[in-house]
Amino acid sequence: MTSVSIRNLEIRYGQHAVIDKLDLDIRDGEFLVLLGPSGCGKSTLMNAVGGLTDASAGSIHFDGKDVTWADPKDRGIGMVFQSYALYPTMSVRRNMSYGLRIARVDRATIDRKIEWAAEVLQITHLLDRKPAALSGGQRQRVAIGRALVRDADIFLFDEPLSNLDAKLRAELRLEIKKLHKAIGSTMIYVTHDQIEALTLADRIAVMKDGVIQQLDTPLNVYNKPANAFVGGFLGSPAMNKVEGQFSTRDGTLTFETGGFALDMEAYPFEERVETGQKATLGLRPEHIVPADGTSRQLEGTLSLIEPMGSDILAWSDFGGISMAHRLSQEDSYTVGNPFAVNIDTRKASFFDQATGKRL
């Protein structure tokens, strides 16, 4: 296992900073996911760790050893790309062993490593097939196996599941999670798919414009986003965002919007808020529930219903403000009917409108 320490890293193309003064520590044996929209710099950062992209400034260390300018072959990494990059004329066995054969590893060692990796990935029965005879998921397992046999200290995954259908993605997510548990190596995984990030990661680094916006556990990134960007990026459907401002009613802090007002007495603010301060309410759909008569009841109109299988996704209008929320399959609902909900403000997020930071 190997730790990674990145200090003040910059990667520039001309005047454009793809990575801007970035610091990051990755622990021994950690599964770290770099998550963000296209163009945020996550693949560039991973390529810098792998030695495929040169740094403009800063340093990269593996277990305290400076590898900023080391060749990729000298870094002890295994890399799995978005494309399978398999040799079509070679069998699975020869594809997986190619790097070892080039390095002149002895035949017995190669055979032992191939058998081990094939067993871990459940592709032993495929070793004599060629890539054309494999499904997309099987090809991706072969690509992972090719990296595994190199005894790498760090494994880099660059959106390895993006070319697969939904069912295969779910299956391979599970396989990758099992793989990490089995071998315990440090893994860095790049994706724009939040489900992959939330299910695989020990920690998630959410990136935007070459800067890490939040580095935390999946649970904290989802439930306590550091800013409005993180809150809006994670979640499907997206977090409801409603603009408003804080006021005081009868000595109680209240958040007022154009359509409704919420009592803030129970909300655990991390930053001091002032009366008149403008903020954005961030509320996950699962935190808006049908009313049961409590004091936070809001009246609205059910405007749209979308069956999702396990539950129902709905949109309701509250005084001109539309918000998504979830409903149980067990009850019946009619579009256009009045609809009342409860909002637990303790599970909400509030972001300063000026800075976007969590309050």
TrEMBL record:
<dbReference type="GO" id="GO:0005524">
    <property type="term" value="F:ATP binding"/>
</dbReference>
<dbReference type="InterPro" id="IPR015855">
    <property type="entry name" value="ABC_transpr_MalK-like"/>
</dbReference>
<dbReference type="Pfam" id="PF17912">
    <property type="entry name" value="OB_MalK"/>
</dbReference>
<dbReference type="InterPro" id="IPR040582">
    <property type="entry name" value="OB_MalK-like"/>
</dbReference>
<dbReference type="InterPro" id="IPR027417">
    <property type="entry name" value="P-loop_NTPase"/>
</dbReference>
<dbReference type="InterPro" id="IPR008995">
    <property type="entry name" value="Mo/tungstate-bd_C_term_dom"/>
</dbReference>
<keyword id="KW-0547">Nucleotide-binding</keyword>
<dbReference type="GO" id="GO:0016887">
    <property type="term" value="F:ATP hydrolysis activity"/>
</dbReference>
<dbReference type="InterPro" id="IPR047641">
    <property type="entry name" value="ABC_transpr_MalK/UgpC-like"/>
</dbReference>
<keyword id="KW-0813">Transport</keyword>
<dbReference type="GO" id="GO:0008643">
    <property type="term" value="P:carbohydrate transport"/>
</dbReference>
<dbReference type="InterPro" id="IPR003593">
    <property type="entry name" value="AAA+_ATPase"/>
</dbReference>
<dbReference type="Pfam" id="PF00005">
    <property type="entry name" value="ABC_tran"/>
</dbReference>
<dbReference type="GO" id="GO:0055052">
    <property type="term" value="C:ATP-binding cassette (ABC) transporter complex, substrate-binding subunit-containing"/>
</dbReference>
<comment type="similarity">
    <text>Belongs to the ABC transporter superfamily.</text>
</comment>
<dbReference type="InterPro" id="IPR012340">
    <property type="entry name" value="NA-bd_OB-fold"/>
</dbReference>
<dbReference type="InterPro" id="IPR017871">
    <property type="entry name" value="ABC_transporter-like_CS"/>
</dbReference>
<feature type="domain" description="ABC transporter">
    <location>
        <begin position="4"/>
        <end position="234"/>
    </location>
</feature>
<keyword id="KW-0067">ATP-binding</keyword>
<protein>
    <submittedName>
        <fullName>Carbohydrate ABC transporter ATP-binding protein, CUT1 family</fullName>
    </submittedName>
</protein>
<dbReference type="InterPro" id="IPR003439">
    <property type="entry name" value="ABC_transporter-like_ATP-bd"/>
</dbReference>
<dbReference type="GO" id="GO:0140359">
    <property type="term" value="F:ABC-type transporter activity"/>
</dbReference>
